């Protein structure tokens, strides 16, 4: 297998101006991910786990380092230096991100959110509608909610919708930032089933999990991050 992602000397820091404090969130991280792998990352709150994922997704722009991604459209591309247009394309077509929080356009229903994700991949309307209903049913989102606005949903319902919207695209690279944090056991099992399906379909994944034991049998490798300084193999 070839590397789909290679991180070289990634560093990211933040300055809290109100208390004049400098925080090093990631420092000199080197990491590679092979095509088709699922890697789990653990670490204490504030250790830099999410910073690594957000730097890959380019929510954050790292101060130092390179993030090489083997894009289907662009070939090898340095995400830390890619243009906004390139990043927008990759987010729509190749790289997915799931967090604990749902950020959506107002007055957009649950059905529309999931369907739009499928349409962005170039599928036709009929296929998008069928896949949307399958995904909403899989996560047991009450059918009465399908045409409702997510602002009215509970935290667990929002999270299930967020996961459904990202996974339905079957991206080449999927970043999972505590995707099961507030889910009950039954909903976690639903996520686990889909992760296994994505692995079988060739999706590469990096996952941050509070409860890595739950996903342990799916992970090809496990890492631990400590104070943003380095990644240590947990094996």
From TrEMBL:
Classification via SMART domains: AAA
ABC transporter domain segment(s): 5-234
Listed GO CC annotations: plasma membrane
A GO MF label: ATP binding
Annotated signal peptide: none
Assigned keywords, A-Z: ATP-binding, Nucleotide-binding
UniProt keyword Translocase, yes or no: no
Entry keyword Ribosomal protein: no
Pfam families found in the cross-reference section: ABC_tran
InterPro entries with a match to the protein in the record: AAA+_ATPase, ABC_transporter-like_ATP-bd, ABC_transpr_LolD-like, P-loop_NTPase
PANTHER family: IMPORT ATP-BINDING PROTEIN
Descriptive protein name: ATP-binding cassette domain-containing protein
Species: Peribacillus saganii
Upper taxonomic lineage: Bacteria, Bacillati, Bacillota, Bacilli, Bacillales
